[in-house]
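Hi P.,

Sorry for the delay on this. The queue was packed all week, but I finally got your sequence through. Input first:
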Amino acid sequence: MDIRELLRTDLMIMNLKAATKADVIDEMVHNLFEKGVINDEEAYKKDILKREQEGSTGMGDGIAIPHAHNTAVNEAAVMFAKSEQGVDYDSLDGQPAHLFFMIAAPEGGDNTHLQALAALSQVLMNPDVVASLKNADTPEKVQAIFADAVAKKEAENKAQEEAEKKAAVASDRPYIVAVTACPNGIAHTYMAEENLKKAAAKMGVDIKVETNGSEGVKHLLSDSEIARAKGVVIAADKKVKMARFNGKHLVNQPVTSAIKDPESLINQILNETAPVYQASGEEATASQESSNGSVWSNIYKQLMNGISHMLPFVIGGGILMAISFIFESYTASGAKNPAFIFLNSAGNLAFAFMVPVLAAYIAESIGDQPALMPGFVGGFMASIANSSLGGSYHVNFMTNSTSPAGFLGGLAAGFIAGYLVLGLKKLCKGLPQSVAGMKSMLIYPIFGLLLMALIMYYIVNPIFSAINLGITSFLNGMGTGNLVLLTLVLAGMMSIDMGGPFNKAAYVFASGAFANDPKSATAAILMASVMVGGMVPPFATALATVLFPKKFTAQERQAGVTNWILGFSFITEGAIPFATADPGRVIPSCIIGSAVSGAIVGLMKVGVPAPHGGFWVTPLATNIPGYIIAVVAGTVVTAVILGFWRKDAE
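Then the structure:
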């Protein structure tokens, strides 16, 4: 696919009106929507903002490349926009951005457009191209500049590939290898590659760079190239195959490090100050977190890996079970109704996998693939009463407790399995190379499972069965006052960071209680509290833009319209643009309103036996008027506070 097909002149904005980063994204996304490139403005914008949270796409030198893969994209396209005055885009160099390229890439499909996008990213590293773009005054000139630059770059790449082949055979210059990768694999991957190559050429170093982008792995490093290399530079924000680099000086940093300061990474290899990487025989990987991540940030990422894989089972199974209760309650046949039996069975099957999947993927994020099976089995042991071993023999993994270890036991099983496998890897590090293949095929599966079963039987299940039973009894026996306090706190937490750790902690607590006992009235009330707490921020910001239009910009008022839909669907993140622009007023207002809605849920004993759905699951609520009142009250409180607190928009 030619770059001119992607860089369409009808999409270009030669004079951006936006004055802030949020406004730039709003204006460009809306233009893509109006021109039919995307079919869901909010869905695409959500992924753009998510990518910005992972790290700014302000690349420096006045360039920003916001991008996202999304099912809302009808066709691949690149939209160019230019701002004469410049916009603070949180760029790597701290300077305003003037040139913006918003890349819209569809999910799936062939990789032709991704190859063109890779070429686009490389071209933007050419200062002559950037200077020409800043002077261009028509869309046709912009397209012509890129067409010429891409043709020259392709010729350079061919010449460089030939030079790399010669360097791999013989050269007196230092030789290193590198891998670049980012989660989306659209821009950062190839810009990091380009900068590493430029820095290496300037420093008199031969280099080969393997790219792990959306079009797959390109320029794959061979064993001979790795063996010859003085060291390895990993500039990646996603998993990279690492075992092949065993024994090499290796520096492992985020992908932006190679864009911002590639010379420093190369010097660490040349000066041999980078540590020597020691693989443990199995397929080790470099994870998304950098080597200097804190203990708590690593634990949080490991936990989120388990929860993100678990949520589809909770949501799908929970909602089907909730719908089945309608057939049970409102039909004459009750529990014998075929629809109830079918839906309830399907929901229960999904729920049965919830805790094992949670534990498995927590373990996998810690100990990699060898930890997946012990984690899965440990989670399964935590979630069942008895496990049949065949014949007439049975082991009671609840150790005669009246309650399974449940959700909390599954959490513990995941972390234990992950670190257990890490321990096994260290113990096996000294084994001869001749038996290295036995580790992943025999040692880790057999000893991982054996030790996990012993730990679950003698330690985890006895302890967490008692804890789980105690929590369940406490929740079911709470008086109205304590219940109101708990629902107030849970709902308020949903607005603290709107999708961050506090929000996830509240949701996980409520969904854990719900998973342990889906028919519990208290668990349903806790689910209702986090549901209303999560709906208030988008609803309240939407209402505030209607009641106090002078307090909001035109872009914010436009975002307010879509927040009605997001609030209805329990998508708290719709309020993030407002919170980002004015956190000191928006976040406290939302916390207060969400807390009010949560208190009403506890006071009126509103239960929702479904773990997701927002207002779409209103018919399932045990107190439908109370559910509506809670959301409306919290929304009005937040909107009024925010409206009186904010100053008029400039």
